[in-house]
Amino acid sequence: MTTALITGATAGIGAAFARRLAAQGHNLVLVARDTARLREQATELHDRHGIEAEVLRADLSTDGGIEAVEKRLADRTHPIDLLVNNAGFGNKGRYLEVSMADELTMLKVHCEAVLRLTSAAVTGMRERGRGGVVNVASVAAFVPRGTYGASKSWVVQFTQGAARDLTGSGVRLMALCPGLVRTEFHERAGMGTDNIPNWMWLDADKLVASALTDLTRGKTVSIPDPRYKALMGLVKVVPRGLLGDVTSRAGRTYGPR
């Protein structure tokens, strides 16, 4: 039986990955900051699907938290077959309205943690000749939207480059770029959602099912919805200056309150 490690596992996309993978018979290592929620989730998934669900409390905004997950990923006696780097958050405010400490914390979680955990996982996977990594980015990676978008763009570029370097190793890497998903993310970021059209919202469980299919097919970037695929197609042809104006207005309309 294979084992998947999921960061940010207790809510939103991370919880959807946990549900889907448990239903498919994978054992799990669930990583988040809230021990009580982790234990409740692990018990529920074990009771429902008969899988083993290990709990690992870690704060990926700290070196100690990253090191704890690195250590688990490097454990050759209990190898990880699939890593889902999902932990992330948004900051309320535009550039210069967000404290430098919060900006640097975002880069720690979205970039440094992804780099270090991917490297820790892939080292063993390459030795075994199999494995997969899903790095959760965002469609914000493709538009000019400050530190959040820049950090997610880094995730996409890093994942594509690493996947190319690992060609033929049996290890698959994929950046997942969802659009808007109803999760705790928006509430935590102080983001108002009442103004956002219903058609823009994605279902987390359907998104995860599509993402895992894309990983199996060997894609290195997954935009798992035709609506957002169409929007990102338009993004490629819109002049960058105009795109910046549009995304700035959209951020004021739909962004953090």
From TrEMBL:
Native species: Streptomyces filamentosus NRRL 15998
Protein name from the UniProt record: Dehydrogenase
Record keyword ATP-binding present: no
GO molecular function, one term: oxidoreductase activity
GO annotations of cellular component type: membrane
UniProt xrefs under InterPro entries: NAD(P)-bd_dom_sf, SDR_fam
Keywords: Oxidoreductase
Family: Belongs to the short-chain dehydrogenases/reductases (SDR) family.
